[in-house]
Amino acid sequence: MNHFYITTPLYYINDKPHLGTAYTTVLADVLNRYHRLIGYETFLMTGTDEHGQKCNQSAKQKNVPVQDYCNIMAKSFENTWKLLDISYDLFFRTTAGWHKQAVQKCLQELYDNKQIYESTYEGWYCTSEETFYTSKDLVNGKSPNGKEVTKIKETNYFFKMSAYQELLIEHIHKNPDFIQPSYRKNEILGFLKNPLEDLCISRPKSRLEWGVEIPFDPNYVTYVWVDALLNYATGVGYQQTERKEDFEKWWVKTGALHLIGKDILITHCVYWPCLLMALGIKLPKTILAHGWLLNQSQEKMSKSTGDIMDPVDLLKIYNSDNLRYFLMRGVPVGKDAPVSHDLITRCINEDLSNNLGNLLRRTSTMIHKHFDSQIPEISNNKKMEPLKNLGIQTAKSVKENISTLQPHLALEKIINLLNETNKFLEQQAPWKKIKEDKKETADILRTALEILYLSAALLKPVMPKKMDQLLKSLSCPDKWPLEYFERGDFPKAGEKIQELPPLFPKIKSEMT
Hints:
Layout lengths: L2 E10 L6 H20 L2 E9 L3 H9 L4 H18 L6 E4 L3 H16 L3 E11 L4 E3 L16 E10 L5 H10 L4 E2 L1 H10 L7 E2 L1 E3 L15 E3 L1 H6 L1 H4 L9 H11 L1 E6 L3 H15 L6 E5 L2 E2 L16 H20 L6 E2 L2 H30 L14 H19 L3 H22 L1 H4 L4 H22 L4 H10 L8 H6 L25
Parallel strand pairs: 1-2, 1-11, 2-3, 7-12, 11-12, 13-14
Antiparallel strand pairs: 4-5, 4-6, 6-8, 9-10
Helix pairs in contact: 1-11, 2-3, 11-12, 12-14, 12-16, 13-14, 13-16, 14-16, 16-17
């Protein structure tokens, strides 16, 4: 059996989940579900990043012990992912004891191999990003992302990241799929044209206590990014004797796919690979950086502008399947994309209510009325072949689009198939033909039902609840449908279609 390992970033817990983190997690879940549908054994890991200065400050502001604060915030992420029907295998928390031990083993190994050294550093520190910058990095006196910085001079430990610059460049050139999309790879190669500096990997406890203690110097904790970046490997068994088989299975043999937002590109595509190379372990297969969700001004949604959308509030209007569908259909992977109530409503009404819902209503109504709710026999009518062939091609295209990590294109193909089927019904007008040719009417409706089955099976990774309802109403399996569809195995002739409530009632604009 083939295997598929995918992760999201670990989300920082200084605030509750927002629509951007929801998008990343839904994308991971959809890709994971598609691979399961195709026949892979899969592993999806998500979780929370719970150390560092921002976390400590947030806990103090709320006047709660920092570990209690972490527990509360981690639960808010878990609850939101449950509402969004995220099916993960591991919810990872960096405060887990086994992870902290694994991080300390890594740090000790790097120190013993003389990859970490002590030095005095003077530079600009950004608390909100937990990152040091040199003067040449600053833009108008702020971090490259526009955040406030403070000048700091202190003694710390440094990782010899500069020693791995050429190895990293070589790896990127030899592995074209390592950083996706390709224009993000070009950004990293552009960054690496300048000399790579060593990475400060510690914080003195006099300034910050909330972190993983440095094993060779108890006066320091490790830089939060070092702690968090190692999770992708420790989560599947790295540095854990009792889980060597898991690490071999998921990391070494399978290779990892990591989803990130483009704003954490440098940490994941430079810092992290250099750390892995220094530890002597395999680099991930692919790091996929997606774009930003934009507001009506075509700017990134942010807390400072007050336009971040709360996924929990959105679910009260659109439900999980509808919101998941919009995020996958309306946001092309890798690109920035606008999000608004108007865009969500239009997408759901046009694709789901007017298209899929309309096809289901038309077809099932006639089956109930004229065929005693029974599914007609398999058709050999030549008129049906073009639509059947389009269905076969659609399933093949969906599989290809998923393999290239483009679910938005897969949905485009499925919606086109449903569009063509609705056009076919308009042309054939079975509601008129039933009066003169019941056999050909049965052939038309049978073909439409087969398209509904195929589409429901292909859409289930995106809309698990509603497509499960549709498949059950047709007594069809939720396995990869191509061979079944080619043979006409489902829906089974003679089975009765179960009554369904409207799956996609139209959303009224005044609701938004």
